[in-house]
Design brief:
The complex is a heterodimer. Chain A is of the alpha+beta class. In chain A, 29% of the residues lie in helices and 27% in strands. Among the domains of chain A are: 99 residues, 2-Layer Sandwich (D-Amino Acid Oxidase, Chain A, domain 2), CATH 3.30.9.10; 100 residues, Glutaredoxin (3-Layer(aba) Sandwich), CATH 3.40.30. Classes of the chains: A alpha+beta, B mainly alpha. The structure holds flavin-adenine dinucleotide. Chain B: It comes from Roseobacter cerasinus.
């Protein structure tokens, strides 16, 4: 039996009996993914599209109901676009750019996140997490129809994980009773409470923020502006230390109240109490309370923590199971999807015998580094929003007061630093920078998008490695150390944006770019030996002796 | 330019008096707030992170 732990928003992968359940010896799978949240689904899709079989086991039959992630950042949308799910997300999502920051009664400042030119995707969208997961699953269905070896088994709960030298044994509970499978690799995408982590006896250390957040999703048809409103010390009665109002699709608004640690949860969740707060917030700018209805309310506490190591032999952790952040900056699902994309191509090479075991260590190296950066950012936001001492309160308020009258103080105001992809500066798999080029496209960065006629650069990159040649002569493809890089030939002569982003002052450039679109190395012209060297480095192999 | 810890203010007595005058008649809380604003304004004017770091160190 598999009892539901939460209500699902929609049924996507209903339980079905499969042959594995009747097998006399456990079936063997190359990759088993535990958990079909945003991270598990993205990973399965990426692997399947590369041709590596992926089996997802999830103990429910669809995404959970209720308020979770709403803010999805550009890098996530770029990844989703590569996976074939991005367009649906952007179409459904709310794109916003205007924001207001308040302190008590007064407005501190307004901002307009004017979009930068030449990107397919916006800086971010607001979209309810169940939609995000549904669009990923739709893409999985399309990929399956095209022959991609992906299987998602709902109602399948992993109850035991037994790592061995050459495989990992799993026990899976189902409505028809338990069965066993074996996997070459197990990826635990089973969320912040990760049963896999517990089964392996691994710890999850970090900092608990002593704070509770009341989250109310409110439906209203009123012509309310599509803006992000954030209050420090909101003037509404009992609204706590901060409050946030943000629009989602379907006329839903996300409202957050930071209530503090010592609260009576039951009392705070009473509808009339929530409505009193919401009334005051909604009327603060317009003077009247629009008609609205409460859709979903809950109280959360947050923590910042991560596992010490994301890789434990044949078991790897990705997403919330590996790291957890406070939600300011929307770094949870966004960073988890980046874990998935980082791991997918590496696992694919491993499963095809094209890389050595050490390549998977670099998954841990890169994503632990990214997790630290995300934890640092969300900890700083939390420290600004909830000053921990008298003097930090004094400085916080000084920043807010100054921000109202002096532009210099506005960048210091921190109500969350929105998720941006991590730059893997100086990590193992990155090579040389011999181009005197723009810093934004140096080795370690994710390739910056750029409009190319009717298409965009990111979607022109190859699924494998790309040798990007801008006004430079290179072979059509290059093979080194098991890695195959195919050329993408472009000219910046009539594309000043491409020149600005990839050439700087150089007349030409050659870039080696990974399957996850991160830049490995770059040169002013094609140098066969140098590219070969970088190709070895890029998949964690020793470079050949010159 | 590195942090200077040598005399750099013309009319030091005049500056010191203006600093105290700015705090004249304020409560402790208001004075603390004024100091915090002043530090932020000066820090922004300096801008250079290395100089700011040296200044923080020198003030300890
Ligand atoms: C209030 C709130 C607001 C948030 N806002 C944002 C935001 O704006 N942007 C953002 O990026 N992130 C946000 N987050 C974080 C985001 O929701 C998570 O980071 C994200 O859900 C993590 O995805 P995941 O796939 O790692 O794990 P989950 O989404 O937790 O999925 C784990 C899956 O594993 C399954 N599972 C668990 N145990 C087993 C088992 N034994 N066997 C089989 N399956 C199992 C679960 O049922 C579930 O389907 C927010 C979170 C909260 C709570």
């Amino acid at each position: 039996m598999v009892a539901a732990r939460y209500q699902t928003a929609v049924t996507l992968y209903p339980y079905q009996k499969v042959a594995d359940q009747a097998a006399s010896t456990p079936a063997r799978h190359p990759v088993v993914i535990i958990g079909g949240g945003p991270v598990g689904l993205a990973l399965a899709l990426d692997l399947g599209q590369r041709g590596t079989p992926a089996l997802v086991l999830d103990d429910h039959e669809g995404p959970g109901l209720g308020s979770k992630a709403i803010c999805f950042a550009k890098r996530t949308l770029d990844i989703a676009t590569r996976l074939g799910a991005g367009a649906a997300m952007v179409e459904k999502g709310v794109v916003w750019s205007l924001g207001k920051v308040f302190h008590g009664d007064g407005k501190v400042f307004e901002f307009d996140l004017l979009p930068e030119d030449g990107h397919r995707n916006p800086a971010f969208i607001n979209l309810q997490q169940p939609y995000f997961e549904t669009f990923l699953f739709d893409a999985i269905r399309r990929a399956q129809a095209g022959g991609a070896p992906i299987e998602v088994r709902g109602g399948n709960r992993v109850t035991d994980v037994r790592p061995a030298e050459d495989q990992v044994g799993l026990t899976v509970d189902t409505p028809d009773g338990p069965y066993a499978v074996e996997a070459d690799w197990v990826i635990a995408c089973d969320g912040a409470r990760s049963p896999t982590r517990d089964m392996l006896g691994l710890s999850f250390d970090g900092r608990v923020f002593e704070d509770s957040f009341l989250i109310a999703d409110v439906k209203m048809q009123a012509p309310f502006p599509t803006e992000r409103w954030f209050w420090f010390d909101p003037p509404f009665k009992g609204a706590g230390q901060s409050a946030l109002l943000h629009k989602q699709p379907d006329d839903i608004w996300r409202i957050d109240f930071q209530l503090g640690w010592d609260i009576d949860r039951e009392e705070e969740l009473k509808p009339q109490r929530i409505c009193a707060r919401v009334d005051e917030m909604l009327s603060a700018q317009t003077g009247e309370v629009p008609e609205y209805a409460l859709e979903w309310t809950s109280i959360y506490t947050f923590q910042c923590r991560r596992m010490q190591a994301f890789r434990h032999g044949r078991v790897l952790f990705a997403g919330d199971s590996a790291h957890q952040v406070s939600p300011f900056g929307a770094r949870g699902a966004n960073s988890g999807v980046q874990d998935a994309e980082n791991l997918a191509w590496k696992l694919d090479l491993m499963c095809n015998g094209l890389a050595e075991d050490a390549l998977l260590d670099t998954y841990a190296e890169e994503r632990e580094y990214a997790a630290d950066e995300n934890i640092l950012n969300s900890t700083r936001s939390t420290d600004f929003m909830t000053p921990k001492s008298e003097i930090s309160q004094v400085f916080r308020n000084a920043v807010l007061e100054l921000a109202a009258r002096a532009p210099f103080a506005r960048p210091l105001v921190n109500s969350g630093r929105l998720s941006v992809p991590c730059v893997y500066d100086g990590l193992t798999l990155f090579g040389e920078d011999h181009l005197d080029g723009p810093p934004a496209t140096r080795p370690g960065t994710p390739a910056v998008d750029c409009k190319l006629g009717q298409t965009f650069l990111l979607e022109r990159l190859h699924p494998g490695f790309t040798l990007l040649a801008i006004d430079a002569d290179t072979p059509e493809q290059i093979e080194a150390g098991g890695l195959l890089a195919r050329r993408l030939e472009l000219s910046a002569q009539t594309n000043p944006l491409l020149a600005e982003r990839y050439l700087g002052n150089a007349p030409s450039a050659v870039y080696l770019i990974r399957p996850d679109q991160h830049i490995v190395a770059r040169w002013p012209t094609f140098d066969h030996e140098a590219v070969k060297r970088a190709s070895h480095i890029a998949i964690g192999k020793a470079a050949p002796c010159p | 330019m590195p942090l200077t810890l040598h005399p750099n203010i013309t009319d030091p007595d005049g500056f010191y008096q203006e600093l105290l005058d700015a705090h004249e008649g304020k409560t402790k809380a208001d004075s603390d707030a004024l100091n915090a604003r002043l530090i932020l304004i000066l820090a922004n004017h300096i801008g250079d992170r290395a100089v700011l770091r040296d200044a923080l160190e020198a003030a300890k």
